[in-house]
Amino acid sequence: MNTVKINGLIILSLTYLGVGCGSSTNHGRFSALTANIGDQSDLCSHQVPASACTRCDSSRAAAFKKVNDWCSPHDLPESQCFACHPDLSFEPLPKAPDDADLKSVTPHPLNQALADIAVKSKVTIIDFWAMWCIPCRKTEGDLNLLLTHNNNLAVRKIEIKGWDDPLVGRYLGGTAKLPLLVVFNAQGDEVGRVSGQKPEELAQLLSKAEK
Ligand SMILES: [Zn+2]
Ligand SMILES: [Zn+2]
To answer: What spacing in Å lies between the alpha carbon of 84 and ligand 2's midpoint?
Structure first.
């Protein structure tokens, strides 16, 4: 009996250590079922949007499993698993003002130059983001604050659907991680790029762009 139990424990621990969060078949991918970027909703006692929490309503689980948004080791949606994603947060983000120059765009045709998306006469941040990217959501909050304090700023958001998205090859060459922020000055010249959530680096690029 003891041996069985011990073996069971050993097997469990090995499986757990070997999983590598998000990189194994035991783990799913983030879907929009929990929260889309920019969503504002009430949180339940599990700190998850109340309308999506599977611990509050287990009948919701099937929809998550169907789109592979499921963490089997923790029996939760991947997009609600704080154990695997400790920096996950659904706290409300600062909102952009209603009159902010903020748009989602899809480059079209695929070979459209980023400089053509930049707004002339304004400083523009082009924000490449993805649904599954937690720092992207935090950056969304940073950008909304910047838009609140700077009415000569434009933000254009481009969603990356997956690493096989053709936009990745076209625009993200060499990018280590999302979000990727590309900053243009008012003349339409690129002044630099920031990869990942780095508000200080972004602030430096913005002051360079404003010169
Ligand atoms: Zn809940
Ligand atoms: Zn998990």
So the answer is: 4
Give pLDDT tens digits for 126-137.
999 998 888 898
Q: What is the pLDDT of residues 32-64, one digit of tens each?
A: 888 876 666 789 999 999 999 999 999 999 999
d(CA 25, CA 188): 44
**Quick check: is 44 in a domain?**
yes
Give this prediction's pTM.
0.77
CA of 11 from ligand 2 middle (Å) equals: 18
- Check whether residue 121 and residue 153 sit in a common domain: yes
Query: How much distance in Å is there from the Cα of 15 to the middle of ligand 1?
Result: 27
Do residues 118 and 77 share a domain? no
* Total count of domains within the chain: 2
**Residues, CB within 5 angstroms of ligand 2 (ion):** 71, 74, 81, 83-84
CA 103 to ligand 2 center in whole angstroms: 33
Give the CATH number for residue 188. Answer: 3.40.30.10
Query: Do 115 and 145 belong together in one domain?
Result: yes
Least distant ligand from the CA of 22: 2
